[in-house]
Design brief:
Blueprint lengths: L1 E9 L8 E9 L7 E4 L12 E11 L8 E9 L10 H12 L5 E12 L32 H14 L3 E6 L5 E9 L1 H19 L4 E4 L14 E6 L8 H9 L3 H10 L4 H4 L14 E3 L6 E3 L1 H6 L4 E3 L8 H16 L1
Parallel strand pairs: 1-5, 11-12
Antiparallel strand pairs: 1-2, 3-4, 4-5, 6-8, 6-9, 6-10, 7-8, 10-13, 12-13
Bound molecules: adenosine-5'-diphosphate and manganese (II) ion (MN) (3 copies).
The site of one manganese (II) ion has 2 residues, from loops.
C-alpha cells in the first residue's frame, strides 16, 4: 500500500516568498526523507546548478486528502554541503530560538487576507468594477450582503483543526472579502511552521471556491483597510509580571532596530501603515494600552492583570512569519536577558 506526502517549502519569490508543493508517493514502510526540486523555477537557483534539497522538518495529516496522506513542511538546503539555502529563514529563526529558549518565548500570529474573484481579480463582495458601501458593518459581521466566502473559511478552520495546527480563532475583517485566522501561541519556530501550513491549506482549498487568496497588504488603495499580520509576543517573565511588558514595548522602539524590523515586516509596509487606518505610521514608533492607533498595543486584559503579552501591529499580511517570530524574539529577549 502507498500514501501521499505533499512536500511544502518556502520559495525564493522576491520580495514576497510563497509556498510551493509537490507530491511524493511513498510505500507504507517508507518515511518521508530528504528530497529535492528545481530551484531555477522558484527563484532559488540557476539552470546550470538547479537542484535544491528539501529537508522534512514538520509533518501533519493532510486534511484535504485524508486517509494516511500527510503534509511535509521542509527546509531548503544547498545540495553542495546541505547547509541552509540563503532563502531559508527558518534556519535563522531556529538559531535565535536556541539562544533564548530559556526565556520561553511564545508567539501568536493574526494572518489577515483577502479573497479575490478569480475571473475579475476584484475582492469578493465588491460589485464588479464598483465599490460596496463604506467600511463599518463588515468586521465580525453576519449576513449575505456583508459577508463573502464564509463557506471557505469554515472549511479552512475545520481542515487546520484536522491537521492538528494550533489555529486559535477566525473573524471577518473590516473590508468586505477580508478575513483573519490566528495561530498560536507557540514557540517561534512552530508558530511560523503552522502559519505556512495553514496558508497552504487555505490557498489549496480556495482553488475549489472560485477565489484566489491574496496576502497583499493593501489590495484596495483608498479608504479601505489593508491586511496585516499582528504579532503577539510574550516570554515567561512577561507572562508573570508587568515590568518586562514595558521593557518589551521600549525594546521594540529602539531606533537602531526599527529599520531591521520594518525590512522584515513585509513588502509595501508604507502603503498600509499610512496612519489613516488603525496602527501608527510605519516611520513613527509608539506604544500604548488598548491603543489600536499605536505601533505596539498592550491588550486591556494584560493591563488589568499586570502581566501577559504585547501585540506588534506593524507586520504586513505578506511577511514571512519566520522573520516576524525571529525579530520579536531576538529584540525583546536580548533586552530582557
Ligand atoms: P485582536 O484581534 O484583538 O488583536 P486576536 O484574538 O485576533 O486579537 O489575536 C490574539 C492573539 O494573541 C492570538 O493569536 C493568540 O494566540 C495570541 N496570544 C494569546 N496569549 C498570548 C501570549 N501569552 N503570548 C503570545 N501570544 C498570545
Ligand atoms: Mn485579530
Ligand atoms: Mn485583524
Ligand atoms: Mn490584532
Amino acid at each position: 500500500m502507498t500514501y501521499r506526502a505533499e512536500y511544502l517549502w518556502v520559495d525564493g519569490t522576491h520580495p514576497t516568498p510563497e509556498v510551493r508543493s509537490k507530491t511524493r508517493i511513498l510505500s507504507d514502510d517508507q518515511e518521508p526523507e530528504i528530497w529535492g526540486f528545481d530551484g531555477s523555477s522558484t527563484g532559488q537557483a540557476t539552470g546550470r546548478d538547479s537542484d535544491v534539497a528539501l529537508q522534512p522538518v514538520f509533518q501533519c495529516p493532510d486534511p484535504i486528502r485524508g486517509g494516511n496522506d500527510i503534509l511535509v513542511l521542509s527546509e531548503t538546503l544547498l545540495t553542495s554541503d546541505l547547509s541552509p539555502h540563503p532563502t531559508n529563514m527558518r534556519a535563522l529563526t531556529r538559531e535565535v530560538y536556541d539562544k533564548y529558549k530559556d526565556q520561553e518565548p511564545l508567539l501568536g500570529l493574526e494572518q489577515e487576507y483577502t479573497l479575490l474573484e478569480t475571473l475579475t481579480g476584484w475582492p469578493a463582495g465588491f460589485p464588479q468594477g464598483g465599490f460596496p458601501p463604506p467600511q463599518g458593518p463588515y468586521y465580525c459581521g453576519v449576513g449575505a450582503v456583508k459577508i463573502h466566502g464564509r463557506d471557505l473559511i469554515e472549511r479552512h478552520t475545520t481542515a487546520c483543526i484536522g491537521a492538528g495546527l494550533a489555529i486559535s480563532g477566525t473573524n471577518a475583517e473590516v473590508m468586505p472579502g477580508q478575513w483573519e485566522f490566528q495561530i498560536g501561541p507557540l514557540d517561534p519556530v512552530t508558530t511560523a511552521d503552522h502559519v505556512w501550513v495553514a496558508r497552504y491549506i487555505l490557498f489549496r482549498l480556495a482553488e475549489e471556491h472560485g477565489v484566489e487568496v491574496s496576502i497583499d497588504p493593501k489590495p484596495m488603495r483608498g479608504d479601505w483597510n489593508g491586511a496585516g499580520m499582528h504579532t503577539n509576543f510574550s516570554t515567561k517573565s512577561m507572562r508573570e509580571s508587568w515590568d518586562p511588558i514595558i521593557a518589551a514595548c521600549e525594546a521594540l522602539g529602539r531606533p537602531d532596530r526599527l529599520e531591521e524590523h520594518l525590512a522584515g515586516y513585509g513588502e509595501g509596509i508604507e502603503h498600509r501603515l499610512t496612519g489613516e487606518h488603525e496602527t501608527q505610521r510605519y516611520d513613527v514608533y509608539t506604544w500604548g494600552i488598548s491603543d489600536r492607533g499605536a505601533s505596539v498595543r498592550i491588550p486591556w486584559q494584560v493591563n488589568r492583570d499586570r502581566k501577559g503579552y504585547i501585540e506588534d501591529r506593524r507586520p504586513n499580511a505578506n511577511a514571512d512569519p519566520y522573520n516576524l517570530t525571529r525579530l520579536l524574539t531576538n529584540t525583546v529577549c536580548e533586552a530582557l536577558a
